[in-house]
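can u do me a favor
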């Protein structure tokens, strides 16, 4: 970060927020005298901190610049940056400006320090910053900077309750293990998705029993990680499906061998996140771990009964590997195991990706996988109306370049799959992943882009998001 010569430089581990004040004004007609100064009105809230200029609005104006090159906002999890710019309204250097700016820190963040030795008043999450030295009252033509450091707030953050009655028909996966932490509200606004499948909750490798995000010991589900983003998404009308398992790390049922303890571990996640839609991504060696699969089914069936007694439904989906011909024999056994143990699975979602041998038409392969899954479920749930069987079908492609060589799920494939899903009114459409829904310079299977150089931002989300349920 490069700051102007008028600003003292400081390096902090927790983060920095940079502010400048800007504005323009029309010149007075020749010979006209200025009107007597009126009390300055507060400015409208600006940028992600809802910053407000509380005084001197007749002399300076406030703008957020954290989305601009050279001074981008940062978020390191335990700290970060916010950037605002303030310049004189006159366009000329202006002395004796008694400015005052109020900021409201987001949930989960706390004030750390301020590096220009300005006066800072802290009241909860609200900061009021004003100059305490004469040189800070001189606003140069190129702007005055305010640098604020913030840190992670360790105080427990209550989760905004999820929406158990809102079906997750279109819920793309988000890789929560990525750095920086994915911004769910911003992704929703940019992509049009209202719900996301947050992946993955797994067993802590250090104690083999604690639910953590992405295998990170520092991110237990009992803590605050992810909660502010989930809360903001829910306040905006969205929700999350919390996904357990995945290709890496151990799903809780693989490490917790007591069904009662496993029930409580799953229940702790439900209670901490107020999440009533759970997904279980069972792949790799987990598919053939029959003991773990049985423990999982029994624990979840018990948890469903517990919440049913409270009048709150607990919606369960399973996500399994698939071929174009449908579930493998091991995958079918996972379904049978759930049925034997009384678990009500609403959606059997298949990973239409990474088939192994190169597949030229990935769109048709995904459609075939979903169609054949429907036939398999019809046989496993005899007597169930056909429309209800279709509602149990979920399909999740890996957008763009897949991990398996020779497999690319293209934008046209996404459009065809969404149209097929809408015609058949399947239960869920998803994708791996919303955090990959960006263009790449090279055709590669990256965790942060699709490998499709020509795609637009969130173009896969918008194509698959035409699914009407």
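np, heres the sequence
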């Amino acid at each position: 970060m490069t700051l102007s010569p008028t600003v003292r430089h400081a390096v902090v581990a927790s983060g920095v927020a940079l502010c400048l004040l800007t504005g323009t004004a029309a010149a007075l007609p020749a010979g006209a005298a200025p009107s007597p100064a009126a009390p300055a009105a507060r400015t409208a809230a600006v940028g992600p901190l809802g910053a407000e200029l509380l005084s001197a609005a007749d002399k300076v104006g406030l703008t957020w610049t954290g989305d601009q090159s050279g001074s981008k906002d940062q978020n390191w999890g335990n700290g970060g940056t916010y950037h605002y710019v303030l310049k004189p309204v006159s366009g000329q250097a202006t002395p004796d400006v008694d400015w005052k700016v109020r900021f409201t820190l987001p949930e989960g963040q706390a004030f750390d320090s301020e590096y220009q030795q300005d006066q800072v008043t802290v009241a909860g999450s609200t900061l009021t910053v004003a100059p305490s030295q004469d040189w800070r009252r001189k606003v140069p033509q190129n702007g005055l900077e305010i640098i604020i450091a913030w840190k992670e707030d360790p105080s427990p953050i209550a989760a905004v309750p999820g929406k158990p009655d809102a079906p997750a028909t279109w819920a793309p996966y988000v890789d929560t293990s990525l750095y920086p932490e994915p911004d769910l509200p911003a992704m929703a606004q940019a992509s049009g998705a209202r719900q996301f499948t947050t992946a993955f909750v797994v067993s802590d490798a250090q104690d083999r029993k604690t639910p953590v995000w992405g295998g990170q010991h520092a991110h237990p589900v009992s803590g605050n990680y992810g909660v502010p983003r989930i809360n903001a998404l829910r306040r905006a009308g969205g929700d999350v499906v919390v996904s357990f398992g995945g290709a890496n790390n151990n799903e809780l049922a693989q490490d917790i061998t007591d069904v009662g303890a496993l029930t409580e571990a799953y229940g702790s996640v439900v209670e901490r996140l107020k999440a009533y839609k759970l997904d279980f991504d069972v792949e790799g060696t987990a598919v053939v771990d029959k003991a773990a699969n049985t423990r999982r089914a029994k624990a979840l069936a018990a948890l469903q009964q517990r919440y049913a007694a409270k009048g709150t439904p607990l919606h369960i989906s399973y996500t399994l590997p698939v071929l174009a011909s449908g579930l493998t024999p091991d995958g079918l056994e996972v379904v049978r195991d759930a049925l034997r143990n009384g678990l009500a699975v609403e959606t059997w979602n298949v990973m239409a990706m990474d088939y192994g041998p190169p597949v030229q038409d990935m769109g048709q392969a995904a459609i075939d996988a979903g169609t054949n899954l429907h036939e398999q479920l019809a046989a496993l749930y005899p007597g169930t109306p056909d429309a209800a069987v279709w509602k149990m079908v979920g399909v999740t492609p890996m957008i763009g370049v897949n991990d398996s060589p020779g497999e690319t799920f293209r934008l046209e494939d996404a459009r065809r799959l969404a149209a097929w899903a809408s015609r058949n009114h399947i239960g869920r459409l998803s994708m791996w992943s919303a955090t990959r829904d960006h263009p790449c310079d090279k055709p590669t299977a990256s965790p942060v882009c699709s490998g499709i150089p020509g795609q637009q931002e969130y173009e896969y989300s918008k194509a698959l998001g035409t699914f009407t349920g």
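Confidence is low (pLDDT under 50) at residues 1-41. hope that helps!!
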